[in-house]
Amino acid sequence: MIRPLEHIVIPIGLIVVGGLLGWSFFLAVTGEAGDRLASVALARVPDSGVSNPVTSVLLNFRAYDTLLELAVLLSALLGIWSLGAAGPGFQPAASILDGMVAGFVPLLILSAGYMLWVGAYAPGGAFQAGALLGAAGVMLALAGHRNAGLPCESRLRLLVALGVFVFAMTGLLLMVLGDGFLTYPPGLAKWLILIIETAATLAIGATLAAAYLGGRPAAHPTSGETA
Fold first, then answer.
1. Least packed by Cβ within 10 Å: which of 29, 37, 97, 145?
2. Phi, psi (5° rounding) for residue 216?
3. pTM exceeding 0.90
């Protein structure tokens, strides 16, 4: 017996999708080039509030996309927390390793601050800085700090939502003022981007460290462990 779905509908659907992809590729190769998006974006970088083309795209020209990326990261952490409390993790490290971690963690935090600031005019920005903060949390967790240096859960919830909250509220405020959602006024673009990136850096760092724990942080760390 011939099953219509498997023997007719699905093959025809795949043929149609393949034809559309082939036609799109043909037009991309043979069609008129027109203005390339990259050249248009590069020409508008001086109006974005920052001089780094990557940051201008991420925080200004396609700020909607970056906001959604932060929301996806937050959603992933909420999914991890839904699994329950984090496991006990690693035992407290020996004094030598603990001393090395105590030295490297401040360096990672300083490097994160530098990456955040330099992102306005050179490679860097919130995601790179947040990754360094997250790495600091991972190092603490590997050294036996059960909560990876993160605050208690109530404060951590505020911290991981900070990036999305500041991003979205900035966009809504600009919309109320008549500039459009995430359409920065030229005179304020630099500072608004810096505020958003600072909030995003803290949120990304806390989210990555919390995700590494594999569950909700411990409510009451045992004696000798850092919250």
1. 29
2. -65, 140
3. no
